[in-house]
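B., you asked whether I could sanity-check this one before it goes into the benchmark set. Here's the sequence:
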Amino acid sequence: MSGTARPGDPDREPADPPPAEPEGGDPACWLDRVCADCGAIQDTAGFTHCARCGAPRE
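And here's what the prediction gave me:
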């Protein structure tokens, strides 16, 4: 035997684990960003007035 491990050999070194998936992306629910008056989606969840119609947040 030449000393090189083949797939399935018990002496084979384990493969590196796959890289971790990056975290982030869109939130699951954007309800806290919707204007109750016109339905526009706001840039931030903590908006005080709608950027489209100017209505205060309820």
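One thing to flag: The chain has a mean pLDDT of 82. Otherwise nothing jumped out at me.
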